[in-house]
């Protein structure tokens, strides 16, 4: 593992309970790198991401993410891990009973922020980054899917993570909105964060080309665009 590595798995096995999903996984992402994760339904993309954010245990092989050893990860260390990475899901997962500002404040409080002024400042900063500076008062149901995903990305940025894991972040969006979200994620990457993004959308990969890993036949292989 090089100094610039932000995520690596070596000879890892990814399990869902007793079911072996992926084996001999050897992957590395450096700081500031963008990588796509593709593969057919059920191929193991979400299982791999879940292992990386501590939702599934890594029992075989070795793995490290944002400086944390995944094989040694204890239940009580999972919040620390989640603070150091940003996670974005297909279905946004905003709390539907509160405004954008309150959604973001909830995460800040849960991750140890106390000072009210500092929290307000940080919320405004991340909302500006995703083009939602004036939308803090909105409730989730008052926003389009694309706007909700922007807020979800703002939420992922709150604690200034070096790595963002995104599980089909454009899966619920129309093609144009998907492109807008990709432009945003590309900008975030250009600002030095690494991104690992699972997707089914090959047209996005062609428009925004980055390294691509494919889950296939129980393995993760690096692939080139012409073989997608
Ligand atoms: N909670 C679970 N318990 C047991 N097996 C599961 C669970 N979730 C997924 N699996 C199994 O693990 C394998 C990989 O599923 P996974 O969700 O990682 O695939 P995926 O590539 O993300 O698929 P999709 O593109 O449909 O999201 C599949 O065989 C699936 O049936």
Automatic annotation (TrEMBL):
<dbReference type="InterPro" id="IPR003593">
    <property type="entry name" value="AAA+_ATPase"/>
</dbReference>
<dbReference type="GO" id="GO:0005524">
    <property type="term" value="F:ATP binding"/>
</dbReference>
<dbReference type="GO" id="GO:0022857">
    <property type="term" value="F:transmembrane transporter activity"/>
</dbReference>
<feature type="domain" description="ABC transporter">
    <location>
        <begin position="7"/>
        <end position="228"/>
    </location>
</feature>
<dbReference type="InterPro" id="IPR027417">
    <property type="entry name" value="P-loop_NTPase"/>
</dbReference>
<protein>
    <recommendedName>
        <fullName>Cell division ATP-binding protein FtsE</fullName>
    </recommendedName>
</protein>
<dbReference type="GO" id="GO:0005886">
    <property type="term" value="C:plasma membrane"/>
</dbReference>
<keyword id="KW-0547">Nucleotide-binding</keyword>
<comment type="function">
    <text>Part of the ABC transporter FtsEX involved in cellular division. Important for assembly or stability of the septal ring.</text>
</comment>
<dbReference type="InterPro" id="IPR003439">
    <property type="entry name" value="ABC_transporter-like_ATP-bd"/>
</dbReference>
<dbReference type="Pfam" id="PF00005">
    <property type="entry name" value="ABC_tran"/>
</dbReference>
<dbReference type="InterPro" id="IPR017871">
    <property type="entry name" value="ABC_transporter-like_CS"/>
</dbReference>
<dbReference type="InterPro" id="IPR015854">
    <property type="entry name" value="ABC_transpr_LolD-like"/>
</dbReference>
<comment type="similarity">
    <text>Belongs to the ABC transporter superfamily.</text>
</comment>
<dbReference type="GO" id="GO:0016887">
    <property type="term" value="F:ATP hydrolysis activity"/>
</dbReference>
<keyword id="KW-0067">ATP-binding</keyword>
